[in-house]
Amino acid sequence: GEDVEQSLFLSVREGDSSVINCTYTDSSSTYLYWYKQEPGAGLQLLTYIFSNMDMKQDQRLTVLLNKKDKHLSLRIADTQTGDSAIYFCAERTYGNNRLAFGKGNQVVVIP
Amino acid sequence: GAGVSQSPSNKVTEKGKDVELRCDPISGHTALYWYRQSLGQGLEFLIYFQGNSAPDKSGLPSDRFSAERTGGSVSTLTIQRTQQEDSAVYLCASSLGAEDTQYFGPGTRLTVL
C-alpha cells in the first residue's frame, strides 16, 4: 500500500535555500507531487515529477527523485516570506487515481 | 479561469445533525475527488467520481458518509448524524481526466460541537 512520510518543521532565513524531504513506499508510483497550503487555504499545486525522471526544475523550485531509495525532495531557492506554508508531497500509483499524501512539512521563513 | 469552488467555507453544527458540503469542479473536468484533512490523520482520500462510472467509495469512513455528483458536474458530500470526530477540513479536487493533475478547492471547515 501507499505510505508517504515527511519531516514536520523547517525554519529558514529569507534568501536561503529550503529543502523539504519525503519518502514513499510504493514502487509503482507514477507521478509524485508537491502541494503548498497557506493558512486557511486549500492546496496549491506547485510542481510534479513523473516517476521516470530524476530531476525537474521550475524557476525557484527543484524536485529531485531517487527511485532506488524512494526519496523525493523539493528545493526552494532564494526562499521568500511568501513561501511560509505547509508543503505536502503526494504520490499517485499505477492503476489508482487517488493521491496518498504525507503529513506535511511546515516551513517558516524568518525575515 | 475559475478554479474549484466549495461552499460553505465554514460550517458549525451540533452533534447528531446532518450536513451537506458542496463542490463545483473546474468546468470540463471529468474527475472529482473528496479528501478530508484532520489533525490526527492528515489528508485522507474519501471518494472519487469519474464520468458516468460507478464512484470509488473505498475511502468513506462510515455509512454516515455519502456523496453524489449530479450531471457530471457539481458534487455534494453528505454526513449524517455528525460526530465530533467528523470535525475536519473537507477538500474537493477535480482533474481533466482520470490520470491528470488534481486541482484543489479552498475546502470547507466543519466543526461539530
Q: What is the strand content of chain A?
A: over 45%
Structural class of chain A comes to mainly beta
| Count of DSSP strands of chain B | 10
Label the overall shape of chain B: globular
| CA-based gyration radius of chain B | 13 Å
User: What is the overall pLDDT average of chain A?
Assistant: 90
Average pLDDT reading of chain B: 93
Biggest sheet architecture of chain A: 6 strands, mixed
Helices and strands of chain A, in order, run as EEEEEEEEEEE
Multimeric organization: heterodimer
Rg of chain A computed from alpha carbons, rounded to a whole number of angstroms: 13 Å
Helix content of chain A: under 10%
Broad shape of chain A:
globular
Report the β-strand fraction of chain B as a percent range. Answer: over 45%
**Straight-line distance between termini of chain A:** 41 Å
Structural category of chain B is mainly beta
Cα end-to-end separation of chain B = 37 Å
Largest β-sheet summary of chain B: 6 strands, mixed
| Poorly predicted segments of chain A | none
Report the helical percentage of chain B. under 10%
Can you describe what's shown?
- The complex is a heterodimer of chains A (111) and B (113).
- Chain A has 111 residues and is mostly beta strands.
- Chain A contains no helices and 11 strands.
- Chain A has strands at 4-6, 9-13, 18-24, 29-37, 43-50, 55-58, 61-66, 71-76, 85-93, 100-101, 105-110.
- In chain A, the strands form 2 sheets. In chain A, strands 2, 4, 5, 9, 10 and 11 form a 6-stranded mixed sheet that branches. Chain A has a 5-stranded antiparallel sheet with strand order 1-3-8-7-6, with no helix packed on it.
- The model of chain A has no long low-confidence stretch (mean pLDDT 90).
- Chain B is mainly beta.
- Chain B is built from no helices and 10 strands.
- In chain B, the strands form 2 sheets. In chain B, strands 2, 4, 5, 8, 9 and 10 form a 6-stranded mixed sheet that branches. Chain B has a 4-stranded antiparallel sheet with strand order 1-3-7-6, with no helix packed on it.
- The termini of chain B are far apart.
